[in-house]
From TrEMBL:
This is Capsule biosynthesis protein CapK. Transmembrane segments: none annotated. It comes from the Bacteria. Gene3D superfamilies: N-terminal domain of ligase-like (3.40.50.12780).
Length: 449
């Protein structure tokens, strides 16, 4: 049986000040029950490399546009075909668009075949992601890859004039969860003066006293709080006095109503990031741009139709990724299951009309099909953390809301009825605290190809 790693193994560059920060986060009288352990596992030279990576990324520019491939693309393809077993078994394509796209199912079937031969196994990190649809995945990563997330988050923050400090002895980032079971831990960030990092679960069961939740946040005073709409909706219910410099919403789409409520309550910037475990932070929503502005200059994005054909700028299709910063999993025409259109904002590409996962059509009372985006727009003004809309085979529509947000039911029902041409809506309580598949249909023709 493998021995539990020591702090020296979890934090190879840990100083006395960093160790004191860990103790403060773990042993504070209002601290939650930390159910897990983790660490940055970064070696000294890697910390220096990450600092350079962060500086380079801050000034990096995109070398491609929706109608123009980057010059580095085919060299990256050749490297992937040479080093990755899945592609080495195939002939090198004559052109980029000759490469058959892959999806989550292909990765789930045999993830090892997508890991380059050059990746050393002794420091490989594997983590499991289930998502809300599709296939469970075990994704390969590395301590350096995990640490690169921060550089892209800083790029997103810098876009809005927010520059984080290196606050040794203070908490830099607090990650929120709101689940019955949640991976919780503390760590320190070497590239930010060993400032504290804590992943906490706002579910009452993870606290000795539920009132400690607000007390711990107020005492730790994180510079940035990151979470998803579910955990942020829970945060709004707590008597938190602390005002972070920014809130980062990841993993799930953030409604305009909830974003506005968070901004008013905490008087800070609220960033809606488009991010996924397979690729990291991809884009951040910018009101001025009118879309999600891309964050990774080393990621090339296409928009594909259902047959795998590349669509021109402005047309909506499936977001498909090539490249990225995870050298353990170089993506090559990876179909994400998310949809949107490509456009430019200045010299930066962006995604317009982002819709997570496959679109679903709903049949109105007049017998007309509408896209689920119309329902998203109908509910956008409401501060909902999550919801589920389902259409049965006979056309009846059910809206499931969290029990804590049932007060929004009447207005949500009215707005959905208007979007669906007067079709009756049944509102029920959402029976899970975890993420849900937002739109589903049993109606023939409801699930789009």
């Amino acid at each position: 049986m493998t021995a539990e790693p020591s702090d020296a193994e979890r934090y190879p560059t840990l100083t006395d000040a960093g160790a004191a920060m860990l103790r403060r986060m773990r042993e504070h009288p209002a601290a939650p029950i930390f159910r897990n352990t983790s660490g940055n596992r970064l070696l000294g030279p890697e910390v220096d490399e990450l600092s350079r990576y962060e500086r380079d990324l801050a000034d990096a520019r995109f070398e491609w546009a929706p109608s123009r491939q980057p010059e580095w693309l085919m060299a990256s393809v050749a490297k992937t075909f040479a080093q990755v077993p899945y592609y080495r078994a195939q002939a090198m394509p004559e052109s980029f668009t000759d490469i058959a796209p892959v999806d989550r199912g292909a990765l789930a079937a045999d993830i090892a075949r997508f890991v380059p031969d050059t990746v050393s196994l002794d420091r490989l990190i594997n983590f499991r992601t289930t998502g809300t649809t599709g296939h469970p995945l075990v994704l390969p990563s590395h301590p350096v890859v995990a640490a690169r997330y921060l550089a892209h988050h800083k790029r997103a923050l810098n876009r809005f004039g927010i520059e984080l400090s290196n606050r040794g002895g203070q908490m830099g980032v607090m990650l929120l969860g709101m689940q019955r079971r949640c991976f919780t831990y503390v760590s320190v960030t070497p590239t930010m003066g060993e400032s504290g990092l804590a992943k906490i679960n706002l579910h009452p069961d993870d606290w000795r006293d539920p009132s400690d939740r607000a007390r711990y946040i107020d005492q730790m005073q994180p510079e940035v709080i990151a979470g998803d709409p579910i955990s942020f909706a829970a945060l709004l219910e707590l008597p938190v006095a602390h005002r972070p410099r920014a809130l980062l919403s990841v993993s799930m789409a953030l409604s305009q109503g909830l974003r506005r409520s968070l901004a008013e309550r905490f008087d800070c910037a609220v960033l809606d990031l488009y991010s996924m475990n397979e690729a990291g932070p991809l884009a951040v929503y910018d009101d001025a741009a009118g879309g999600h502005v891309l964050l990774q200059p080393g990621m090339y994005i296409e928009i594909l139709d259902p047959n795998g054909k590349t669509l021109p700028p402005g047309l909506t299709g499936e977001i498909t990724l090539t490249g990225g910063f995870n050298f353990c999993l170089p993506l090559l025409r990876y179909r994400t299951g998310d949809h949107g259109a490509l456009a430019m904002h200045g010299d930066c590409p962006m995604i317009v009309g982002l819709q997570g996962r496959r679109p679903v059509r709903f049949l109105t009372a007049a017998g007309q099909w509408i896209n689920n985006i119309d329902l998203t727009h109908a509910l956008a003004v409401l501060p909902l953390s999550r919801y589920q809309i389902h259409q049965a085979t006979h056309g009846d529509v059910t809206l499931a809301l969290p029990q804590s947000e049932i007060a929004q039911a009447n207005e949500a029902e009215t707005r959905l009825q208007a979007a669906l041409g007067g079709r009756p809506i049944t509102v029920v309580a959402l029976d899970t605290e975890d993420k849900v598949r937002q739109y589903t249909s049993d109606m023939p023709g409801g699930d789009t190809p």
